[in-house]
Structure formats: structure tokens, C-alpha cells
Amino acid sequence: MIADLLIEDIGALVTMEGPGLGLVEGATLACAGGRVVYAGPRAGFAGQLAPEGERVDAAGRLVSPGLCDPHAHPMFGGDRAGELAMRARGDSYADIQAAGGGIYSSVRATRAAGDDVLVDRTLARLGRMRALGTTTVEAKTGYALDLPGELRMLHLYAEVARRAPVRLSPTLLAHVLPAEVLGDAPARASYVSAFANELIPQAAAERLAQACDVYCDQGAFTIEEARALLEAGRRAGLGLHCHAEQFTRSGATALAAELGAWSADHLERVTDDDARGLAAAGTVAVLLPGAMITLDLPRPPARRLLELGAFVALGTDCNPGSSMTESLPLQMSLACMQLRMTVEEAWLAVTRRAAHALGRDGGRLAVGAAADVVLWDATSPAEVPYQLGRNLVSRVWVGGKA
Ligand code: NIG
Ligand code: FE
Fold it and tell me: Rounded to the nearest 10 degrees, what angle do helices 103-112 and 147-163 cross at?
């Protein structure tokens, strides 16, 4: 066995294989051609390093799979720092949106931004995410709203994906109704119909999106509209996600489970029956502590979801309004501190479960798996969520490349 990347003297190797963290103490990790060829006890490794290969001394530190962010909105124009100030003075997220701000403010800024600006800003953001340990990122559209603009975002994501320092999983998001159709029932119906019957099939046929998503809530799409959009996604062969039960309980979680969605996300108002439905369908519950904290929402019932057998993942929900964070380790901290998730559950939620929520088999270090790896300036897995807001990442490899 000839490795081109050899990480030696690993104090704690989180493989996510088998029960719990699949922890191996005193480990070696060897990779070749972008894949793992050995992950286990130091004594069991019998291969060699190729002459041009990279040898890394982990010096007793922690090594884990690269993290996967299953819910992110990384491309948008402008920013909404001013809204934090407004909310701090007592305005609500819904009031700000109803007054034409919120998502609509980012839509104006995104429509006005040039292609290069959007691509460069997104690449910079993905670079910062990688520096925080993330190697796979979901990337939602939804800040153009008009169909040509949404298609433009997908094309820009294709350009970003070619140059990005992480793996990208683009999702076409039906985010909110364009301001132009609000209060005009026929125009609203024809927007939903064109999104479902024209844009979704086109995005799937051109392989610009791997999934589609609908924000089903007050101020966004109704449950009937969400069904039409998600059924169109399913017909087109896309994976399905749904922004569900964040501000109001709409029934979107049950709809996601019924349609076999990859994930239902947010879930602040989810019921036990919803959780059972997710568990039965294998639809991942993606919790978003950044949005929960930013908007001071009720805590989603993570313990109940886990007890009832649902798969639970964590995402950043990185977006300019409700969750301006790029850090998955911060979400792990919040999950342990605010949602009563265990350290093991938090690691699982940003590795295997998060990959599952993107229709992937990833987030583990086993022979044959992608060589997406993080070396941490830490010696135990608990240190990552324990350090609230400090970046412990030392090195990152994606497909074996530093
Ligand atoms: O996932 N809830 C809806 N959409 C985003 C927020 C987007 C924004 O405020 O710009 C979310 O939280
Ligand atoms: Fe979101």
C-alpha cells in the first residue's frame, strides 16, 4: 500500500465508523488518490509513503472527518447588520420582512450585484468555512426570486463549485414570493406554477441543482404551495428539503416525511407525531442553532427527536438575516449547551447525519471513503464543542489535498 498522505501519531482518531465516534487512540491515517486507504491503530499500518507524498506529524492531536454543512445560504448580495440593531431595539424578524426588509432587502442587493462580486464573495465565505473544518457545504439559491435570477444563481454556483476549496451541493430554494406578486392571487398562483413546472425541471435537466427546497411558513409559501413545489422536485428526480415549523406549525414536516425528503429543517415547533414520521421515513431532522439563537426562537426538541428515532443533523443556516455564522463547531457547542445533545450526537450531526441529509454517504473515515480530513489543535473530541467560538482547526484536506 503506497500512500500519498500519511498522518501519524494521531492521539484520537474520530472515524465515525461503528458505534459512537468510532474512536481510535494512537492511530495512523493513510490516503491515496483522494481516498482513505488505512484508518486504524498505528501498529496495524503496513504501507509506505510515496516519495512525493506528504507526511504529517499529528503530535498526539485529534483528527476527524471533514465536517458537512447540510443547510446554508452562502451566496447573497449586501448584508443586514442594520437589522441586528433593529431587532436589538425590539423589532421582530417578521415585522422587518413585512416592511419590505429582511429577505427582500437581500433580494434587492443580490439582483443588483455583479456576477464577479457574488462569485468572489461566495468563494471567500467557503474558504472561511473550510478554515473552520467544513469540507462539504450545501448551497441554496433563493435571493433572486424571479426565475431568470434563480437560474443565474444556479449558474454562479456551478462556477463557484469549479473553484471552491470545499465540495458544494447546490439546492434550488423557493424562498418567499416575489414582492410583485404578493396580494395578487392569480399572479401568485402563476409564479408557483412556473417555479414548479418550468424552473425545477430545467434545473434538474441541466444538473444545476441536486435538490430543491421550500420555505413553508407565515410570510412564505403555504402548505399547498409547498406540496406542489416539492412534488415537482420529486418528479424531476431531485432530493427534497423543507424549511419547516420555524415560526408556525404548518404541517411541512409531515409533508417532507410523506414525500421521502432528504431533510426537514429548523423544526422549532415540531410535534412527537412529526418526529415519528421523520423517523419512519428516514428524513433527517436538520436543526439550526444559529437561527434559533439569533431570533431567540423556542428550542427544537432535539432530545425528543432522538428518543423517537429520528436522525438529527446540525447546519449553520449561514445567511445574512437569521444566522450570520459560518461555523459548524459553534453549532456543535450550541447543540450541547442549549439542545441537550451529547458530544457524540453533536459529532454525528455534523458528519454522517449531515451527509445523509444531502443524499450522500460521507462524514466518516473508513477505507474507500473520501479523504476529507481535519487535524485539530485539540486532544479529545469534547474539546471542539467545549471551546465556545474559538477555532481549533489546524489543517484541512479535501480529497487528500491540503
Ligand atoms: O433559513 N427561514 C427562512 N430562510 C432563512 C432566512 C433567510 C434570511 O433571513 O435571509 C432561514 O432562516
Ligand atoms: Fe435556511
Answer: 70
